[in-house]
Specification:
Length: about 160
């Protein structure tokens, strides 16, 4: 799902990172930067700091929350794992996240069912600062067809 809107961080009390397995890249319950036992890999491995934060996306229809992960954060905001020292982002980085950005986003939608309740979550798959093409009202442009050739009366009138 693609949309154009204003993206910005509104909750600065949220965690901006999580720890992941260095082999399978899955989130873990590890604490600190030491080695931990990964239940998915069945190995003792070091934990990686990965960027994750929520942004609010607003357009003319309303607003939603979406999660931004390391790869998109690096491309859209120039934020890397090195910026999340001890789980905290530096003040200039936080200011950058708080500034509203008009951009085009591709969102992935995930639906989870838990205890009889359905929950929908959005993840930002890509973000760019490009503008969408202007909408057209001409049917020929919409279908990429050439315009109709003028008939004989119109040709005589133009001559």
């Amino acid at each position: 799902m693609s949309t154009q809107g204003i993206a910005k961080v509104t909750d600065f009390a949220q965690s901006f990172y999580y720890l992941a397995c260095s082999i399978c890249k899955r989130a873990t319950n590890a604490y600190g930067n030491g080695d931990f036992w990964c239940n998915y890999c069945a190995k003792k491995v070091p934990a990686l700091t990965k960027i994750k934060f929520n942004i609010q996306i607003t357009d003319e229809t309303g607003s939603i929350e979406a999660a931004v992960f390391s790869e998109v954060a690096a491309k859209a905001y120039s934020i890397t794992q090195a910026d999340a020292i001890d789980g905290k982002l530096a003040l200039p980085v936080l200011h950058k996240l708080g500034d509203p950005r008009k951009c085009i986003m591709t969102l992935k939608v995930y639906m989870h069912n838990y205890a009889g309740r359905s929950e929908i979550k959005f993840n930002a798959h890509s973000m760019s600062a490009e503008d969408l093409p202007k909408p057209t009202n001409r049917f020929e442009e919409l279908l990429a067809l050439p315009p109709n050739a003028p008939n004989k009366k119109e040709q005589e009138r133009r001559a």
